[in-house]
Amino acid sequence: MRYQISGKQIDIGEALQTHVKNEMGIVMAKYAQRPTDATVVFSKSAHEFVCEATVHLSSGLTAAAKAHANEIYAAFDACNEKMDKQLRRYKRRLKDHHREWTEPVELMGASSYILAAEGNNEDSEPASLQPMIIAEMETKIPSLSVGEAVMQMELAGAPVLVFRNEGKAGVNVVYRREDGNIGWIDPR
């Protein structure tokens, strides 16, 4: 498994990196069959340290966790516990007994845009109704079943997920509705 351990404007020592690799390796060995890579980012927010971890599995799923604590090791340990709990809850769903994953999930390239409206006042009417694009990046769209897409969205804690439907080979969207249920958009 590849690890990318970094800090946002803080120095990450060798001892912390070793601790992260050892502890996260234990959790991944217990619950995830073939993790491909893990990204762990440490930052500081006022007096607290923040640890954000993302693990990509060969099945196409992404698990993410975030935790805060007064000490950097405690922040990682809390984040690692959340990851452990998340993978433990979804272990049965991660293990699809009807299908063996021999290769990683196929990914399709796509562009992703971040949009921002002009002006800071929300009450004022903008001169133009066109938002300004402030960031553009490449992203990958996984090829998943609808159930796997819902699980991926829940594991990542995301409100929406765009994916290519394996059954119909079209682009679909799953999202969390305001009533707490899951919505599925399948354009025909």
Could you explain the architecture of this structure?
Associates exclusively with 100S ribosomes, which are dimers of 70S ribosomes. Its main location: cytoplasm. Required for dimerization of active 70S ribosomes into 100S ribosomes in stationary phase; 100S ribosomes are translationally inactive and sometimes present during exponential growth. Belongs to the HPF/YfiA ribosome-associated protein family. Long HPF subfamily. Keywords: Cytoplasm, Translation regulation. The chain has about 190 residues and is of the alpha+beta class. The protein has two domains: about 1-95, Ribosome hibernation promotion factor-like (Double Stranded RNA Binding Domain), CATH 3.30.160.100; about 105-120 and about 130-185, 2-Layer Sandwich (SHC Adaptor Protein). About 25% of the residues lie in helices and about 40% in strands. It contains four helices and nine strands; from the N terminus they run E-H-E-E-E-H-H-E-E-H-E-E-E. It has helices at about 15-30, 70-90, 90-95, 145-155; strands at about 1-5, 35-45, 50-55, 60-70, 105-115, 130-145, 160-165, 170-175, 180-185. The chain has a five-stranded mixed sheet, covered by helices on one side. The radius of gyration is 19 Å and the shape is globular.
